[in-house]
Design goal:
Blueprint (H helix, E strand, L loop, with lengths): L2 H6 L1 E2 L6 H7 L3 E5 L5 E5 L3 H22 L7 H9 L3 E2 L5 E2 L3 H25 L7 E3 L12 H18 L9 H9 L10 E9 L1 H6 L4 E8 L2 E13 L15 E8 L4 E5 L6 E3 L12 E3 L8 H11 L6 E2 L4 H7 L5 E4 L13 H8 L3 E5 L19 E5 L3 H17 L2
Parallel strand pairs: 6-7, 13-14, 13-15
Antiparallel strand pairs: 1-2, 2-3, 4-5, 7-8, 8-9, 9-10, 10-11, 11-12, 15-17, 16-17
Helix pairs in contact: 3-5, 3-6, 5-6, 5-7, 9-12, 10-11
The structure holds adenosine-2'-5'-diphosphate (A2P) and magnesium ion.
């Protein structure tokens, strides 16, 4: 678009000057010229996407390093704590039985959050920064956390140095605490907000299974880009004949920008490939994903739905938003998530996964078929659960969900 065009265009249904609209409006905005010629301007988020990919990839690198090093003075103690069954606090978030164990687990996520904040702020210095994220620095500010905080700071500094693109003085422990606390935004329907789960699927991470670094951008309440770094996900399909596959390389990066499709590349930096959800139309051929953890989703309910659909394959149970990534490349056909009553889903647990799967041609809704609304702050107000599949299977899935929920409530 030329400077001349800018002078004669005014956005439809807006009294704001065009330049203002161009800078503040997301996605597609319609403009008319003085002669009523309508022009569509597609907003792009290339710069933000590049920053998000870099932030999530570096955080994945950091998480992999965290898995092979110690945040505690005694590796042995840490091992015991991390292997002990992860218990639930009142909010049902996973923490280990001892406070110290909690610090080890939340300290790792905070470390990832500090790094993502650092990268986004460096890469996008001219944009106002708002982040809705899972962690805060409360635990790390306690007296007993000094050693963990120092180790976290060292790891963040080492990751920044090893990347080599930032010439910055070494971050202090206070810098790291401040970076973690940048994630205190409440989100909402106005302006732009980054949404981050620095380690999604903590239980999978602790077990050495699947987890993800999930980063998304909201613009005026809509998810406009998302990145999922999945350090333990094989590049080859995890369904079907994966075990027989010759490619056992792990570490995937999924990313999507609104209107531009979903891509996957290896975390080691291979060329991106465009991915698509499965085209399966016959539900009997579908396989489905659900949470590894029984406490996170009602396995009996998804089993009853799968039965109605005639699904023959057993459920594929994996942790975190990795399920969205795997679904976006057609590994399975359906993802069902039915948390128990009272659990409130947070936006950082679904924002990145939602755009990764929808840009790959999938549909996501709550159990009643309503789209997910990310504009209401930290929480998603949902009707019962979350279901995801392709366009063809969604009507059948919704019907089976409705019937199973009715049966469930009549048996209570
Ligand atoms: N009781 C629960 N019901 C549903 N989801 C939960 C529950 N407790 C924690 N979660 C969240 O489920 C997500 C993992 O999902 P999945 O079951 O698909 O692996 C995590 O974000 C986890 O939160 P957190 O990130 O605090 O661990
Ligand atoms: Mg999470």
């Amino acid at each position: 678009m030329t400077g001349n065009c800018l002078k004669i265009l005014t956005p439809i249904s807006s009294s704001k000057p065009l330049l203002f609209s161009l800078l503040s409006k997301p996605t597609k905005t319609q403009f008319k010229t003085s002669s009523s010629f309508v022009l569509s301007v597609k907003m792009s988020y290339h710069k933000e996407l590049a920053a998000a990919k870099k932030a999530a990839s570096l955080a994945a690198q950091l998480c992999q390093a965290l898995n092979s090093c110690s945040l505690s003075p005694s590796c042995k103690v840490q091992k015991v704590l991390l292997q002990s069954d992860v218990q639930s606090k009142s909010d049902k978030s996973p923490v280990t039985v001892a406070d110290y164990g909690m610090l080890v687990v939340s300290g790792r996520a905070a470390c990832s959050q500090a790094l993502v904040t650092f990268v986004l702020e460096r890469e996008l210095p001219s944009e106002p920064f708002s982040l809705v994220a899972e962690e805060d620095s409360t635990d790390l500010r306690n007296d007993g956390a000094t050693d963990t905080l120092e180790r976290i700071t060292k790891l963040v500094n080492e990751t920044i140095t090893s990347d080599g693109s930032y010439s910055v003085p070494t971050l202090s422990t206070e810098d790291v605490l401040k970076a973690i606390d940048s994630g205190k935004s409440e989100g909402g329907s106005a302006g732009r907000h980054w949404v981050l789960d620095p380690i999604d699927g903590t239980k999978g991470f602790v077990r050495g299974d699947q987890y993800a670094i999930a980063l998304a951008l909201l613009d005026e309440g809509k998810v406009v880009l998302g990145v999922l770094a999945c350090p333990n996900l094989p590049l080859a399909s995890i369904c079907g004949d994966y075990d027989k596959s010759s490619n056992n390389e792990v570490g995937c990066l999924f990313y999507a920008e609104i209107g531009a499709g979903t891509y996957m590349q290896s975390l080691n930096g291979s060329s991106p490939v465009k991915v698509q959800v499965t085209a399966i139309e016959n539900s009997e051929e579908a396989s489905f994903f659900e949470s590894y953890e029984k406490a996170h989703s009602q396995h009996d309910l998804s089993s009853s739905i799968a039965k109605k659909l005639g699904v023959k394959a057993p459920p594929v149970r994996i942790d975190s938003q990795v399920k969205y990534g795997a679904l976006s490349r057609g590994d399975g056909a359906i993802y069902m998530r039915f948390p128990r009553e009272g659990y409130r889903e947070k936006i950082w647990d679904h924002a990145a996964g939602c755009i990764v799967v929808t840009e790959a041609g999938g549909i996501i809704s709550d159990a009643a078929g309503n789209p997910l609304d990310f504009s209401k702050g930290k929480y998603l107000d949902l009707n019962v659960g979350i279901i995801v599949t392709n366009q063809k299977l969604m009507p059948k899935l919704l019907k089976a969900v409705k019937e199973s929920l009715e049966e469930q409530s009549s048996s209570l």
